Amino acid sequence: xxxxxxxxxxxxxxxxxxxxxxxxxxxxTPYKARSRxxxxxxxxxxxxxxxxxxxxxxxxxEQGDIIDFVCNFEHISFKExxxxxxxxxxxxxxxxxxVRRKVEKKPFKAPYKExxxxxxxxxxxxxxxxxxxxxxxxxxxxxxxxxKGNVYQERYKRNAIFASYVKGxxxxxxxxxxxxxxxxxxxxxxxxxxxxxxxxxVNNNSKTLIVGEAxxxxxxxxxxxxxxxxxxxxxxxxxxxxxxxxxSVLRAIEEGNYTGIVLCFDNDKAGDKAKEFVCDxxxxxxxxxxxxxxxxxxxxxxxxxxxxxxxxxxxxxxxIHNKNCEVNVDTLxxxxxxxxxxxxxxxxxIYGNNVNNHLLIADKETxxxxxHVNANxxxxxxxxxxxxxx
Length: 390
Prior knowledge:
Blueprint: H1 3-13, H2 18-24, E1 30-32, E2 38-40, E3 43-49, E4 54-57, E5 62-64, H3 66-74, H4 78-89, H5 120-123, H6 125-134, H7 139-148, E6 151-153, E7 160-166, E8 169-176, E9 188-190, E10 200-202, E11 208-212, H8 215-227, E12 236-239, H9 247-255, E13 260-264, H10 269-284, E14 290-293, H11 303-316, H12 329-335, E15 339-344, E16 348-353, E17 358-363, E18 369-374, H13 382-385
Parallel strand pairs: 11-12, 11-13, 13-14
Antiparallel strand pairs: 1-2, 2-3, 3-4, 4-5, 6-7, 7-8, 8-9, 10-12, 15-16, 16-17, 17-18
């Protein structure tokens, strides 16, 4: 077979619809999982784009066309998969293959914003409960993003909307369900017609772009910055909302004037692959700025896991109503100048100590230490104690 005929043959094979093949050969049951993707009930981690006839499966770090699909599903080589597909196709002309479930592109329509009530808390009660209550996101971070329009509660519904804009016009939105009994892969999905070349982006005219795999990871990153009195409003943020849309990072860098890129993808194979993709292309683009790797420690963890771990260690090992320790913060500061404020609110101040890795919870008015966490005993190392400082 000549090189040209071989290439033509591959192009014909790649036109075999993945959904049809999975249904007729493997006996799978297709269903529409999201606005732009179909899946199979027997393997709902598989997402198929009918428009592109490609699939991805983040749980197994798989993606590609019909040939890749057969390779991975049957655990056979590329050549063997091509032979299987040729046998399936037989003498049937490609033009006569059924083309079903073709998705017509619809114009993007921004979800309605809940604004029927007077206060921020009333208009966003469900997303506050989910993001701040369950995910431990700072209420200040949420209020700031709500003011910018990047996060808001959908009207008449309990969904959180993560939106981004170009020249004041919304061009992308992701809907996040706030119900408790929702499977993780069904919790978030993009609004039909969203421009995925931009994804979720927060513009602050910064020189540093912080990139994450999910919006909640970036909200967690902002919360971690706030916990150490860092100005989280000083940075730009981009969530790829998955690892199959990392090209949005390259577009953001091409259009921006960044001197620093912070990558905080998940600590798993898919996250490593996305990070490698971005770093390789930044090298090809001759990017002169600095690249910071803020991958959370712990296999399979993400930034939100890290945030909730830190908060659980503080809350789980201390009780602010316990007996007061006969130690005063002023005395402590005189004895050791390595003590600094990590987080504070109206009533309490949390101090960190770089020398002995202690977190001290003190009464803000009296300065008395109420309780403390030994970070060494809780397996929180010094770097983690600094809460991912940039």
